[in-house]
Design brief:
mainly alpha
Length: 195
C-alpha cells in the first residue's frame, strides 16, 4: 500500500477517534450526569488508552510480518466495538440505576467502558509507524507527516461531529457513521495491502 494512502487513512482514523470521544462523552454524561468528574474520566481514559495501546504493541510492531493486516484488524475491531457500545448506551441507564450513586463507581465504569477502544486506537500508532517508515533517513519527515495527518483528522472529526453530523443525524447515527468508517478503513487496507 502506498504511504500517501496509508497517511490519509490514518487521518480518517483520527477523525473517527475524536468523533467517538465527543459522542461517548455526551452519552456518558447523560448516563452518569454532566459533571466535571465524568468529563475528566472520559478524557483521561482516552489518553490512558492511547498510551497503553502504544505500549502494548511496541514490540509487536518490530516483529509483525504483516503490519497492514494488524492495522486493518484493529480498525475493524474499533468499528465493531463502537457500534456495539452505541447500542449498549440504550440499556446502560437501566443497569446504572441499580448501582450506588458514588463518583468513584461512575469513574471506574467510564474507564472500563472506554479502555478497550481507546487502547485499540493507541495500538495503531507503533504498527503504522513501522509499516510506513522503512528508510531511516526519512524517519523524521514521515513520522511528522503521519502525526500531522492524524491530528488534522482528529480536529476535523470533532468539528464535523459537533457542527454537522450530530445536529443532522443525531448521536446514534453519528456513532454508526464512525463505526462504519473504521470498518471501511480496515477493509480498504486489507484489500490494498499488497498494492
Amino acid at each position: 500500500m502506498k504511504y500517501e494512502t496509508l497517511k490519509i487513512l490514518f487521518g480518517i482514523s483520527g477523525a473517527s477517534a475524536l468523533i467517538y470521544e465527543l459522542i461517548w462523552s455526551r452519552e456518558l454524561q447523560l448516563v452518569f450526569g454532566a459533571t466535571t468528574y465524568t468529563a475528566s474520566a472520559v478524557f483521561a481514559t482516552f489518553l490512558l488508552g492511547f498510551s497503553l495501546g502504544a505500549f502494548i504493541t511496541r514490540k509487536r510492531s518490530e516483529t509483525t510480518k504483516s503490519p497492514l493486516k494488524d492495522i486493518a484488524n484493529i480498525e475493524i475491531a474499533i468499528g465493531v466495538y463502537g457500534i456495539l457500545l452505541t447500542l449498549a448506551f440504550n440499556i446502560l441507564p437501566e443497569i446504572i440505576r441499580e448501582i450506588p450513586n458514588l463518583q468513584i463507581i461512575k469513574i471506574t465504569l467510564t474507564t472500563l467502558i472506554l479502555i478497550i477502544p481507546t487502547t485499540l486506537f493507541g495500538a495503531i500508532w507503533p504498527i503504522i509507524h513501522k509499516a510506513s517508515v522503512q528508510d531511516i533517513e526519512k524517519l523524521g519527515r514521515k513520522t511528522g507527516q503521519l502525526y500531522s495527518s492524524n491530528s488534522l483528522g482528529s480536529a476535523l472529526g470533532v468539528l464535523a461531529a459537533g457542527f454537522i453530523l450530530i445536529p443532522l443525524l443525531g448521536i446514534q447515527l453519528t456513532a454508526l457513521v464512525a463505526g462504519i468508517t473504521n470498518i471501511s478503513i480496515g477493509m480498504v487496507i486489507l484489500g490494498r495491502r499488497n498494492k
